[in-house]
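Bumping with the actual sequence this time:
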Amino acid sequence: MTFDAALVCEQGAEFAVVCVRRGVIGNPTQAAQTQASFSPHFGGVPVVLMEQDSSGRPTYYGRRDIVDFLANLSMDRLPWKKWHLN
């Protein structure tokens, strides 16, 4: 499985932002399960999910302080890369 994510270290805090398909965030149960499934891959750091609407506008799901930080940041500034899971 291949996915896009950014591992971020900002102001002494480390977290991951993972791109998910549209609709995942709208289902709280599925969002929480998806978030938990990615957490071990990033060493247990907090994981925030990100999906984009049809115009490319991001929506985030995760810890409120991280979501608030990301809301004020252009997603182009995150260190995105392709990740691979077996």
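The tokens above came from a reply further down the thread. Residues 24 and 30 are 6 Å apart (CA to CA).
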